[in-house]
Design goal:
SH3 type barrels, five-stranded parallel beta sheet, six-stranded antiparallel beta barrel, Rossmann fold
Length: 371
């Protein structure tokens, strides 16, 4: 099989590419250059895809003995991930840029280019598994055996078609230490390289500062649920539902209890704060459903709303009209409604909702405001 191995410059993608080559596949390594700033370096970045990362990926590819190329996907990344991030925050929503990157870059732009060049599959170092146990024996996406590193949540938006054409060689590994040990054994210099973290295009980790620089200031009011003005802010994009600190208010609640952001209204420029109990929800409503198999009302599922959050048991209340598995991993219109057995806190519009059956991914969708 002809395989395109996405090589970030880290240990996981290097070992994944090595395993694919060792399995007898015809492997070509490619590094996706996502940053428009060619001056970005790892010492000044907390993310991935820096100048040093491209160099590390090249050295790893040479050690494995596979061809290696750098593809400039910075325009796609800026338009489909960075701009989406800014637009969503401006609309009072809380997106996960890693989800968007996986959906629109790694398993859309990259797979499209791979297909055009005659590759059969894309291989990455993600911690997830593809198994042939979906309906009719179709390939399905599963959690990694390494629960601490599991990335099935951020991969769920890839859809069934991309799953059929993806290889995740690390999905059955139980520890990251085992992967690093294998990298050392293979002579890969990235064996001790630290993991990337946080938002890769916010190099200094200051998300609020990044948003202010790009969206500017739009002053407004901080109010309680009764509409009483408690303070001011410089822009609703500096807040997320569930936030407790940096609210810009001086007077404490009458009962002395902590207060949190419970709603954001960009149109009126108001940030609404309230008691913790207002953050709890038993019912989740989402749109833009990407289903790996047909869903039906009444089905028991577990639901996860954060990358490393707990998966909570519940059941599907409603699926979009005629919602079936999208033939190409596309989205279906209408609402997905899920009732949880126990309430979950901090549900914010724009977050990704992923449904599981055990460790198998059933679907992904985008959370909306309260029903």
């Amino acid at each position: 099989m002809k395989v395109l191995a996405a090589m970030s410059g880290g240990v996981d993608s290097a070992v994944a590419a090595a395993r694919a080559a060792e399995a007898g596949h015809e492997v070509v390594g490619v590094h996706m250059a996502l940053s428009k700033s060619r001056d970005q370096t790892r010492t000044g970045s907390r993310g991935c895809c820096t100048v040093e990362d491209a160099s590390d990926a090249r050295v790893a590819a040479e050690r494995i003995g596979i061809p290696y190329y750098v593809w400039d996907l910075s325009d796609d990344f800026h338009d489909l991930v960075v701009e989406d991030f800014l637009t969503e925050y401006a609309a009072g929503r809380t997106p996960n840029p890693c989800v968007r990157c996986n959906e629109r870059i790694k398993f859309a732009s990259l797979l499209e280019r791979a297909t055009a060049l005659g590759f059969d599959a894309v291989c990455t170092g993600h911690y997830a598994s593809i198994r042939a146990d979906g309906p009719g024996g179709a390939p399905s996406l599963h959690r990694s055996r390494n629960q601490a590193k599991d990335q099935s949540y951020v991969l769920a938006v890839m859809g069934p078609e991309a799953a059929r054409r993806s290889l995740f060689p690390l999905g059955e590994d139980e520890t990251k230490e085992a992967v690093r040990a294998e990298a050392r054994k293979r002579g890969l210099g990235v064996s001790t390289k630290p993991d990337s973290y946080d938002i890769c295009f916010v190099a200094d980790g200051d998300t609020r500062g990044f948003l202010e620089r790009h969206l500017g200031e739009a002053p407004g009011e901080v109010v309680d649920t009764g509409g009483t003005v408690l303070g001011t802010h410089r822009g609703t994009h500096g807040f997320t539902v569930g936030q407790r600190r940096g609210l810009g208010i001086q007077q404490p609640a009458a009962d002395g209890a902590p207060r949190y952001v419970v709603d954001i209204d960009p149109a009126s420029r108001q940030v609404v704060i309230g008691a913790a109990e207002l953050l709890s929800r038993r019912e989740l409503v989402a749109t833009d459903l990407i289903a790996f198999e047909p869903l039906e009302a009444g089905r028991a599922v577990t639901a996860q709303i954060r990358a490393h959050g707990e998966a909570l048991p519940g059941r599907i209340l409603e699926v979009p009209t005629a919602a079936t598995t999208p033939a190409s991993g596309g989205t279906s219109g209408g609402l997905l409604r899920v009732a949880l057995d126990t309430p979950v806190r901090g549900v914010a519009p724009g977050q990704t909702l992923v449904l599981y059956d055990g460790d198998r991914v059933l679907a992904a969708a985008t959370l909306e405001r309260r029903p």
